[in-house]
Amino acid sequence: MTQQVSDEDFEQIHAAVREFIRTRVVPREREIADTDAIPEDIRQAAKDIGLFGYAIPQEWGGLGLNLTQDVELAMEFGYTALALRSMFGTNNGIAGQVLVNFGTDEQKAQWLEKIASGEVVASFALTEPGAGSNPAGLRTKARQDHDGAGAGSAASGPNGAGAGSAASGPNGAGAGSAASGPNGDWVIDGAKCFITNAALSNLLVTFARTRPADENGPGIAAFLVPTDTPGVTVAPHDEKMGQQGAWTSDVHFDGVRVPASALVAGDEDAGYKAAMTSLARGRVHIAALAVGSAQRALDESLRHAAVTTQGGTPIGDFQLVQAHLADMQTGIMAGRALVRDAAVKYVSGEDRRIAPSVAKLFCTEMAGDVADKAVQVHGGSGYMREMTVERIYRDVRLLRLYEGTSEIQRLIIGGGLVRAEKKKQGQ
To answer: Catalytic residue among 40, 403, 407, 421, which?
Structure first.
């Protein structure tokens, strides 16, 4: 990817984001946790400084940061409540990148500028109860209806205003506009779970199986489904162990009708590649997020160790406490270097599969270990809800699960290495 933002300009963006997080968000972390929501003034401020579209190309209204720059911001996002990053993460990452890399010109024109501005919140509707880290197991189905009334017919929605009324999509081109195409609408049935921002979303980038995998391709397509399309039901957001304020929900599709123009790339086999490409990029981002969270846990531990005494001696003077701090610092430095290296390899195209998985596996496991040590350094106080490290301990646990579990990363890495060696040996 061509670098759209110079190093000098990025330094200013980085500094502005760092100041925003440290001065506006960090002081209100407890409020975010207690209310399970991002305050509206923080949401608006994030829009104002371009955070809903920092990774969207400039021609579509974003800042145009590439992944090497993205990870530097992600390490800042990780320094505070992870709900902040989640608020705009799907716009820039797994959902937005599907459109950036695979959308048709018409799809990009319809959605990307509004995604970049934050007017539209996009969600990545992939995970299902029986298909989490392996999209090949999708059960949500999409069939093409050549004889149907069309997504925008009067009969398709309540009050005679089908899913394709002018109000249903940006630029007045709703899901059922005349552009639905000669090949017939698509009808989607199925269920998704753990969909980030679904309760706030305007657009669901939805993955569905159109046929069994065969010699022609995986048969997995991606569709752009406005959340207000008839047949879409978004459940109340989940109650989670941590990451309060980052909302996930179940989503159900019951005879959801969208036009042919909603098919991403106009290709019913593009969905699998689109999902894998977005997830690989997202894994480097999540790895950077983990590094930022680990750094915050270390900083909190250092402050605690320097001022808290036992028997009149600061606990930071105790060698076993220093050993914990040393291990934390070592993991963080290794993780930061690994993230930056993986981002460079992704941007250059050298490695967009194994390196992202290596970075995510190491950094998210490392963040869990650092958070555990941080609680240990704090002793009993580290288990108290008012302590920052207690929140971090709960928040970072999820990092080992989404964008592909640690187990899936090991399979990707190990399998990829073996396949590469077999190819080298001519097998």
So the answer is: 403
